[in-house]
């Protein structure tokens, strides 16, 4: 069978020809339950391979052991779209010599496809695969649903290694990534911990502030002129965003509005909206919970999309460009509507754009939901400490104390004012916040760049300094 | 919606930037019912664009109007995998200055992917599409099932134009080719005549000679040692091949053998074998009849594969490499087991390899079924007038008068002799044929090359001379 099936991760690495100085990649659908990145990195380190570029679509707390590999110069460069606090804080403290290059979920496949970030060996954790490497995330004990972010890695890496804990006879039924891209297949005991794989979803918020914001968000959508048949929608998995989705569902059902699609990371709440007839289809680049996994496996209207189809500016078209409304979060928003989702109040890395910039650029209405302050720190500020998404792509900020509309969108401003929504200039929101919390101490920029924030078109958006 | 939807084929051609001297491509899933190639060529001719390279996966009799475009130098070079007699005979008479380059169904995507035959503008006739170009062959009034051969065109052409007669709202459900590759979408009244689209299948033969060959073919498979659980199989749509599939089904059901897959162009006979449990899956690059179209639309075990996954030597692996047995036809077989499927007895072009060479190279047992003679002309001969598939890739020739095993496969020879099958040296089959028909007059080679036969690895296998 073409000899793709090998006995161990180490054998696959050896056969792939991986050498010091090369580039390797991982996808993040197993999220905080992923075993694969750590296991592969341990093998690589034990083999004496060093100075690698690590291109991972996202890095979670479970990947904290990367710190050791960085200290030992096994990894000397990181390209990623998201990095949670465990490694992020170490990066902010100056762990690496070379800055981390942050991209977006659309910018990453763009730069892979264009050859700007070539991958020598891609490692694909696959919940089900056959001996030729046909593989899918929909089936098996470690099922994660969509494998959307792994498509560019499979298609463009020089060598592709599929690692699975559910090897099935050839040909598997319902593959996502076809054998034509796969060089080696390894069977292991487990690629991840199911409890961690689908832990992305929080519940709908019960916090009164979150509920007020969610209600206001839905009113903004209702009065935006976009909520009509054919409506398309994306939201994140935060508590207030999910509450907004839930309220939106009620409105759509009440008013008999039949949308076209919801996209992005998919939660059970969006699955419910599909089932209820609010949407014709879900366009799924990543499943956040078990209900989404079950749905993408069984409902043909719940469709897997690659990272390219989701958001790549190098694709002939992408789903994000057809979005009517996206609801996004923020750690900071400034009075120019620039949004920070990379760093926390102390300037430490604890996130990343993911699809933030991509959907904000593509959607007709890009909405930020954020409370005016968190833990006595204002969210609205003069200048964000890191521009993750430029203000030009943001239409409106919804807080519990009012709604600030970007002056670039005068039509929306008028519509919301006419509807009696509490529209307030963003400077007033900032003043309001500072009245309550006092003027915050901004983190001091040390001058040493620890990360670059690269916009989806490949241009440098901002840099992040060590703390 | 990114402005992909344009008003006419002509507008799409103009926007694509097609200029004289460029290369265009078409797929052949609409077979002899296809309207699209002729309509596009008429527009191109009317626009004054000339000296094009035409890369068509196959050319049928319905495409006979190409003759006029060749005479007018609108088309000056043809790359194809199959050409039926209407244009084939004109080519053999010396219609074109440049030789036609014949490839295989696997060699074509290989050379497209490697950049050896770049495509400037691909035209994809799509039975269903949305305004972004997501498209499929499974649905709509002109449904043809799989769009397998169109994948390389979509993925590698500089510009891709989807032409559909069933435009549905975005996002369509169950696309095969995603929007990321598609630049323009055109809606037309009809892309083809359904009666011609799925006319590829003949019925099981009632001819006693054909039935004898089919019975013998199944005995060869039974005694080859390959017919066991996990068995994989491909056969063409000729009457004797279909009869062999039908007899094989009976044997597999009687003996409780559960195969893994059948591949290739799929007929209702293979669908019946899937339904009966003879196979776990069908790997479908092309549907030959309505039953296959219905099956690929409704049965997840009936899976669409791209031309790359079917047969490309440039893919990391392909389905043909996992075949146990393939049954193939021939217009001539010579005593070195070389097979001709390109020309008829007078040396005129009337066919092509399609997947012939690809499956012969990949399968563990490549079987030719052919009568000893047809219309008083022997099939077995000293030297085929054109080598379509090299004898090294053929294991056995089944005729109504005996079975010739290629001496390279001694194990098969012993197995078939032990089983009491009428194994005869191929020279004796030739002599037998000539005793009945007389020694044939071989077509005279004029010396002018009208076609090159390019093997799946890109090497020149043979040439075809004008008649």
Characterization of this structure:
Two copies of one chain form a homodimer. With 467 residues, chain A is of the alpha/beta class. Chain A folds into two domains: 2-197, Glutaconate Coenzyme A-transferase; 208-442, Glutaconate Coenzyme A-transferase (3-Layer(aba) Sandwich). In chain A, 28% of the residues lie in helices and 23% in strands. Chain A is built from 15 helices and 26 strands. In chain A, strands 1-11-9-6-2-3-4-5-25-26 form a ten-stranded mixed beta sheet. An eight-stranded mixed beta sheet of chain A has the order 15-14-13-12-16-19-23-24. The mean pLDDT of chain A is 95.
Quick overview:
Two copies of one chain form a homodimer. Chain A is an alpha/beta fold and 467 residues long.
List keywords for this structure.
homodimer; 467 residues; alpha/beta; Glutaconate Coenzyme A-transferase; 2 domains
Uncertain regions spanning at least 5 consecutive residues of chain A: none
Instruction: Provide the β-strand percentage band of chain A.
Output: 15-25%
The CATH architecture of the largest domain in chain A would be 3-Layer(aba) Sandwich
Using the alpha-carbon principal axes, give the shape of chain A: globular
The greatest interface here is:
A-B, 39 and 39 residues
Number of helix segments of chain A? 15
Helix content of chain A: 25-40%
For the record, the CATH class of the largest domain in chain A is Alpha Beta
Main β-sheet, spatial strand arrangement of chain A: 1-11-9-6-2-3-4-5-25-26
Oligomer classification: homodimer
Number of domains of chain A: 2
Radius of gyration of chain A: 22 Å
Number of strands of chain A: 26
* N-to-C CA distance of chain A: 53 Å
Q: CATH superfamily of the largest domain in chain A, please?
A: Glutaconate Coenzyme A-transferase
Mean pLDDT of chain A: 95
Report the structural category of chain A.
alpha/beta
Largest sheet report of chain A? 10 strands, mixed
CATH topology of the largest domain in chain A: Glutaconate Coenzyme A-transferase
